[in-house]
Design brief:
- Helices cover 22% and strands 42% of the residues.
- By secondary structure, it is an alpha+beta fold.
Amino acid sequence: MAELKWDHLVHYVNVLDQPVEQFREHGLIAFRGGSHTSWGTYNSLSYFGLTYIEFLGIENLELAKATEHNVVVRDAVNVLPEHEVLSRVVLRTDDIEAVEASLKAAGLALSPIIDGKRLDNEGRLIEWRMMTIDGDFQGLVYPFIIQWSGTDLERLQRLTESGVIQPHPAGNTDMVSAVFRVSDPAAAAKHWGELFGLSLAESEGSSYSLQIGEQSFDFVQGDENQFKQVVFETDSAELKGKTLQIGEGEYVFN
């Protein structure tokens, strides 16, 4: 299978400006992204290198309800406005057809590969290809797969030159792990590892970590079977040791 990297994460929110202001109050750059005019959703973003947070809200409920083949939008309709939860992580590839073939061979139910697009806040068109995975493993929903145009290096250069990626005023801050609270951490880590070609980095007690580049997906004991926490490493004295609560999601700074 093609190598997969951690592209971003999706966090459902009702008011896009709320997490933007909360991040800014702590020296973290976040901003309005744009609208998915075909799906009835819109977003705000915060970048940590090429891995970023997407705060996703519903802009047009009727359009979102009518959206086919996109479980991310469908789930947003189902959980909002009651639950502002961390939805799922997103994996980036440079060969989405190869990933599709591998996941189909594993017996997963996939959406068609669909074209995504939105206008950014400068009116520029951003395009990608994506594929979502239906169902879950013991209650934990799967990531979805995305492929951007151009190489990682080209995107990093373009996003840096445009000011989308820039240093955070608080100081150096890197997104290092996503934490999933699941009823059977060993089984969940093994399943994801086999599906997505990720190696077991370490296990400690009842916790299991999968390596994805220099980052990790951590599966810890819990009844929620849900993505619950994002962990950062920072040299910011103000941020270090803090946890920012946004809806039902936690952003932890070490």
